[in-house]
Design brief:
The chain is α+β, with helices and mostly antiparallel strands. It is built from five helices and seven strands. The chain is about 20% helix and about 30% strand. Strands 2-3-4-5-6-1-7 form a seven-stranded mixed beta sheet, sandwiched between helices.
Length: about 200
């Protein structure tokens, strides 16, 4: 058994992929003051602003560095469905993105709420909606992935929601804080080792 060094300006994370191969039994939706609002062809900057607000604390950055035309091709694809989660005042506080581009499958690409809402039961509400929307006609598999950079309860939450782990991989990438994509104080649970270039 050995340790593999990671460069000071890189991040390493263990990614766990999980799946459901059977539609879960219908259950009552948990109560929540939040609601889903469908985003048809969202604007790139609006999408990125919400993505950053939800995912910055967990070092989500892939959609922040993607070329505009590449991102637009994904989020404007008819087989990719996106909802904003909004509070009573109409403020966007979460996101649900479902990817149906592979026949018979639905990926929960992004499911998240702003960190201020953690631990209040809203995640169960959002997941109930996610699963109801994901299991459409002809869907035989719904899947999601999470990683060790995510909220510490994410993996257990997905398992309690009925997902079964099937694969684990290691991902390394340049720390988005070290190159100014996210602020240096993002993700304090994962220390920043490299100074900005």
């Amino acid at each position: 058994m050995g340790l593999i060094p990671v460069k000071p300006d890189e991040v390493a994370t263990i990614v766990t992929s999980l799946e459901m191969r059977e539609r879960p039994r219908p259950a009552p939706l948990p109560a929540s003051p939040l609601r889903l609002v469908r985003w048809e062809r969202p604007g790139i900057e609006r999408y990125r602003a919400l993505f950053r607000r939800i995912g910055g604390p967990w070092l989500w950055f892939s959609r922040l560095v993607m070329a505009d035309d590449t991102l637009a091709a994904i989020i404007h694809d008819d087989a990719v469905r996106i909802w904003a989660v909004v509070d009573r005042a109409g403020i966007e506080v979460g996101m649900l993105e479902l990817d149906d581009r592979k026949a018979g499958e639905c990926e929960l690409s992004y499911v998240g709420l702003i960190p201020e809402l953690a631990g209040q039961g809203h995640g169960r509400w959002l997941m109930a909606h996610a699963l109801a929307l994901a299991w459409g006609k002809d869907v035989r598999r719904v899947w999601v992935h999470t990683c060790t950079l995510d909220h510490p309860g994410a993996l257990g939450f997905y398992r309690r929601s009925g997902f079964v782990p099937y694969q684990r991989t290691i991902e390394t990438f340049v720390d988005p804080r070290s190159i100014g994509i996210l602020p240096a104080d993002a993700a304090p649970h994962y220390p920043l080792l490299a100074s900005r270039r």
